[in-house]
Amino acid sequence: MRDDTLAAGDAERADKLAEEGYLQDNAKSPGYAYHWLKLRLQIAEQQHDSYKAALLARQLFDESYHDKMDAFRAIKRNIPKPEWPAYLEALIAKAQSSATNQRDLLAEIYVSEGMHDKLLRIVQQVGQPHFTTQYQGILKAKYSEALVQVWKSILENYFRQCTDRRSYAIACGYLQQIKTLGGVEVANRIAVQIRV
């Protein structure tokens, strides 16, 4: 029915039906309500209602566990440019204060906004191989020395747990990461310590 209403060009009615769908699903099973919000956002953007679209995108960002970066981009599209920096800081603060771990979301926001210094800080805080590898390509040109230190810390923590050949091979891979970042001397010192 909502597709027929949209196809007929009755955006106001389609939005009203989507709002009703959202309210019903949100009361019974909130996971389904997300789709209604996305539909309302789509309608608002088709109607060039930036204010309403920004509000709906923010609601998606705050309430949904799905596609937060899509909601983030929709917010950015619909917030006036002069207001964006303050709004961005509010979104970051919201993600930082969330009870759930939002490090991946924060990292993606930092990448999207070119906030590489903040991205480096989160990579340093997380200190995990997969996370570091994921953002190393973005950071290495400007922060290779800092990344060497991140890998050094990862390796030192990991080596304490090395008990077999497989874990030793993984440790050697981490040494290679350090070398590719220009930390050959650091890698060689660690290799000597490992052999002792």
Please specify the SSE layout and strand pairing:
Blueprint: H1 2-7, H2 11-28, H3 30-46, H4 50-63, H5 68-78, H6 84-96, H7 103-112, H8 116-126, H9 129-159, H10 165-180, H11 184-195
Task: Give a written overview of the molecule.
The chain has 196 residues and is mostly helical. Helices cover 81% and strands 0% of the residues. It has helices spanning 2-7, 11-28, 30-46, 50-63, 68-78, 84-96, 103-112, 116-126, 129-159, 165-180, 184-195. Helix 3 packs antiparallel against helix 4. The longest helix has 31 residues, at 129-159. The radius of gyration is 23 Å and the shape is elongated. It starts with a helix and ends with a helix.
Number of beta strands: 0
Poorly predicted regions? none
The profile of the biggest β sheet is:
none
Helix/strand/pairing category: mainly alpha
Mean pLDDT: 89
Work out the helicity level.
Answer: over 70%
Which band does the percent of strand residues land in?
under 5%
Distance from N terminus to C terminus (CA atoms, Å) equals: 72 Å
Estimate the global geometry from the Cα principal axes.
elongated
Total helix count? Answer: 11
The helix-strand sequence is: HHHHHHHHHHH
The whole-angstrom Rg is 23 Å
